[in-house]
Design the sequence.
């Protein structure tokens, strides 16, 4: 067992529903195991500037179901420098902090891993990003919630699409991946899912739409993941409209709507599991790991997996989407 007594935790990068559930789990696990949780406010910026606060069980009351992040987040160019990380280390030493739990995405983990190796600090990561693009884990905190929000929005869009014989292009987040697009596209019955991993040309899309129209489709939904080679939903819709006019064409960009709102039950549970596992891992003497959801279980994965490997799209779901879109 490790002799860690004080564990710092921070949230970094884009916020994701369920981050607060992870924070709560870390704090309460620390209390359970007689360690002190120290909240770092505003991510690595707080680490560099010493924005620390001891957290108690009551500090995290009533945040389990809240979106966003209780600890707040920010970008920190200073932490990318050796001098900035040295300042962060000095702050941790001054506050007698023995370990650090970073909650965020691959960029967050890359910074934590370098920091841990430079100064010999025990590090753990908890994957939290709506994009679900972290290699080494089946699910990241926030992905399920964001996907549910997208499906709910598309269901509402379909109501008006059916009423007016319309073709809607719905653009969703994902950075340079199509995980949200694929899952929400299947769940909402999209006629086509356009994502960076599986490029669809304008000509191919027009052929799909014509086939659907011949099969008496009165409306269609196309889900577009940001990061496509053909551009975003606006560019693709314009190109399609020039070649195909059977439908009236509309575009909806969901944007940061996908990040907000209460976390789903699934995200609350895996965030809670991961928070406990991160604390237990550090207290067991482990370091340089992230908590990972693999085949229904929480396991430890080397943290460098998150930023040295590229997560692959689920080919089975790609096929399912193709079969069901006819």
Sequence:
């Amino acid at each position: 067992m490790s002799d860690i007594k004080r564990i710092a935790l921070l949230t970094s990068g884009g916020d994701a529903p369920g981050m607060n559930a992870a924070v709560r789990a870390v704090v309460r696990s620390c209390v359970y195991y007689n360690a002190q949780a120290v909240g770092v406010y505003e991510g690595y910026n707080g680490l560099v500037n010493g924005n620390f606060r001891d957290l108690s069980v009551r500090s995290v009351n009533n945040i389990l179901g809240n979106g966003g992040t209780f600890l707040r987040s920010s970008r920190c160019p200073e932490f990318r420098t050796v001098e900035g990380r040295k300042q962060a280390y000095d702050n941790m030493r001054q506050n007698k902090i023995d370990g650090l739990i970073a909650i965020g995405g691959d960029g967050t983990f890359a910074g934590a891993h370098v920091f841990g190796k430079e100064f010999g600090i025990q590090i753990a990561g908890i994957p939290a990003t709506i994009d679900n693009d972290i290699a080494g884990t089946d699910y990241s905190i926030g992905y399920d919630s964001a996907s549910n929000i997208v499906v709910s929005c598309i269901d509402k869009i379909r109501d008006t699409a059916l009423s007016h014989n319309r073709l809607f292009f719905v653009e969703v987040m994902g950075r340079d991946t199509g995980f949200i697009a694929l899952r929400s596209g299947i769940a909402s019955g999209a006629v086509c899912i356009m994502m960076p991993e599986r490029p669809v040309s304008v000509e191919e899309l027009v052929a799909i739409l014509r086939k659907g129209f011949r099969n008496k489709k009165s409306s269609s939904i196309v889900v577009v993941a940001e990061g496509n080679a053909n551009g975003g939903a606006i560019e693709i819709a314009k190109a399609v409209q020039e070649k195909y006019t059977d439908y009236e064409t509309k575009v909806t960009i969901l944007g940061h709507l996908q990040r907000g709102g209460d976390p789903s039950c699934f995200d609350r549970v895996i965030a809670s599991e991961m928070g406990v596992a991160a604390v237990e891992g550090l207290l067991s003497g482990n370091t340089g790991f992230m908590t990972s959801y693999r085949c229904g279980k929480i396991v430890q994965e080397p943290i460098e997996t998150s930023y040295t490997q590229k997560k692959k799209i689920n080919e089975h779901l790609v096929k399912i989407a193709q079969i069901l879109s006819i």
